[in-house]
Amino acid sequence: MKLSVVTTLFKSAPYIEEFHRRISSEVKKITGDYEIIMVDDGSPDESLAIALKLVELDPKLRVIELSRNFGHHKAMMTGLENAGGEHVFLIDVDLEEPPELLNQFFDELQQRQYDVVYGYQQERKGGWFERVSGAIAWRLMNLMLPIRVPRNHSTVRLMTKTYTSALVSHKERKTAIGGLWVITGFRQHGIEFAKGTRRTKSYTLAGRFGMLLESITSFSETPLYGVFFLGLFILACSTLIAVYLTIVRIMGTVLEGWVSVMVSVWMLGGLGIFCIGVVGLYVSRIFIETKARPYTIVRNVHRQLHHSTVNQKTA
Question: Chain-centre distance of CA 178, in angstroms?
Answer without folding.
Answer: 5
